[in-house]
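User: structure tokens for this one?
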Amino acid sequence: MARRPRRDTPGSWHHVMNRALARRPLFEDRADIRYFLSRLARRVRSGEIEVHSWCVLTTHFHLMIRSVTGDLSPSLGLVQNEYVRYFNRRHRRDGPLVRGRFTSRLVDSLTYRLRLLRYIDANPVLAGLAAWPWEYPFGSARQYVLGTSSPWLDRTWVEAEIRARGVRKGSFGDAYMDLTRTKSAEADAAFVSSWLKRGRHGSNDLDRLVASSPPGVLDWMLRKSALADGQVPGLPMCDLPSVRAELAEYRTKATSGVSIGRGRLADHALLAEVGLMRSMCGLTLAQVASISALPRTTTQRAAQACRELMQSDPEFARLISELGRRALDRCHGTDRWGA
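Assistant:
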């Protein structure tokens, strides 16, 4: 089967990663890491790429890269090939080291780019190698916080984001920690993983949706519900913990209900839960049913009732759009885009 061409144009942003075969070490010591980074620095100096975030672990690496010339594939392919030859020579081995050509995913959403920055930083925390990202020595989080970054780390975008938040002069390290501090590294990992698995369709919706008012959120949900067919409705716009947290706050006040057939009465909170998990979290009906502990047929009826109420009941439409708006705020923050 022919390889799919990478989506790479001058100025495009990418999440680049790869890992060793069979969970073996890709980097055995500091010398290995230093050599890998030196190959990366060469490509930066050549003007082909910019590196804005990076993290190297024992078995894999993550990079956030801006492709300057649109030559990401040959540039990173050279980095990887040079490193594999070095590793095999130094450790007296032969044969393949990595799973194949490096993986890259286009990052065409600013909101997702910030989420990805937190995810890359949090990798050592998720692996149990550090309590905080900036404590880990082999990643850009420590360099940003301590102000000791390598010449090839491009700080312009991150520093622009920090300045946009009105940071005081001389406190960039603290501001970076505030910018990238996450409520849940696991939720960030699950959110990024879902985008990686499902490709890129629909990604441009995220920035628009995060900037939308509740009526704008409702319009987007109505469009998504019209396309839903029981399969994956698209990329997630919000993580599940944020949706469930907002629903938990609302449930203490929820009293109204609606029939969903066969004598079942579903409260508006349950219908909103099903609708938000389908549209905001990008879950299938089977996944929603499992999470909500409902039969599949009941979940289908609840999803249908939710769609109908969004169109016919102004009070329910207001409820679900405000819950969706607050879940987006909780997930992505409102300091830049507003409610």
